[in-house]
Amino acid sequence: MLGGYGGISSIDINGSKAFLKKFLGEGQGKTGTGCALDCGAGIGRITKRLLLPLFKTVDLVDVTKEFLDKARSYLGDDGKRVGNYFCCGLQEFVPETGRYDVIWIQWVIGHLTDDHLVEFLRRCQKALRPNGLIIIKDNVSYEGVVPDEVDSSVCRDLEIVCRLVGQAGLRIVHEEQQMNFPKEIYQVHTLALR
User: Fold this and answer.
1) Taking a C-beta distance cutoff of 8 angstroms, is the pair 191, 20 a contact?
2) Which of 117, 114, 86 has the alpha carbon at shortest distance from 100?
3) Does any domain span residue 71?
4) Per DSSP, what are the bridge partners of residue 82?
5) Strand 128-140 relative to strand 145-148: parallel, antiparallel, unpaired?
6) Domain tally for the chain?
7) Which of 64, 118, 119, 176 sits at a 20 to 30 Å CA gap from 111?
């Protein structure tokens, strides 16, 4: 759901792919490619273009049933490798312990309160396989917490996001700013957590 900025989809996916490929593969500390979870998956844009090309199985979770129904048709034949479609808000969702190599959380943390985000990240940590990663990719404000009256979400600055990650008992192993996005939108940062 690119909010009128559909033209940035390829830039977004290519940036995410380059970021993720730094961690995937064989060898010490590398992350496996067995199973990924797409959080706030919507109709499955990230599942289709980023996760399914890199992982054997992908699960989707989204609070809106209509989006997940659309994902089934949008994913087409690739949908055969989707393990589960979970219709649930992230504040209640409990991912299966030890299932995921990567948990991808993009453009959705602004819909969670600080407490819900911390608790969700703690549950995600338990759902990781050895050397698994939680990836957050989201808008960051320049300072403080900026409410969005249109969709009742918030945009937090990077310092606040990092503090909440720490409260969840996770550490940031890598962080990058997404480049080549329009100047008028918030900066987008990607964080890899373990």
Assistant:
1) no
2) 86
3) yes
4) 58
5) unpaired
6) 1
7) 176
Please report whether residue 117 resides in a domain.
yes
Beta strand 172-177 with 82-87: parallel, antiparallel or unpaired? unpaired
Domain of 110, CATH number, reads 3.40.50.150
Coil vs helix vs strand at 116: helix
Question: Which H or E element spans position 12?
Answer: helix 9-21
* Element (DSSP H or E) covering residue 9: helix 9-21
- How many Å separate Cα 172 from the centre of its chain? 15
Angstrom distance (rounded) from CA 68 to CA 61: 8
**DSSP secondary structure letter of residue 61:** E
Cα–chain center distance at 190: 9
Q: How far apart are CA 48 and CA 65, in angstroms?
A: 18
Residue 177, domain member (yes or no): yes
Q: In angstroms, rounded to a whole number, what is the distance separating the alpha carbons of residues 1 and 95?
A: 23
* 156 located within any domain: yes
pTM summary value: 0.96
Q: What is the pLDDT along the chain (194 residues), one digit of tens a residue?
A: 444 455 688 999 999 999 999 999 988 989 999 999 999 999 999 999 999 999 999 999 999 999 999 999 999 999 999 999 999 999 999 999 999 999 999 999 999 999 999 999 999 999 999 999 999 999 999 999 999 988 899 999 999 999 999 999 999 999 999 998 888 889 999 999 99
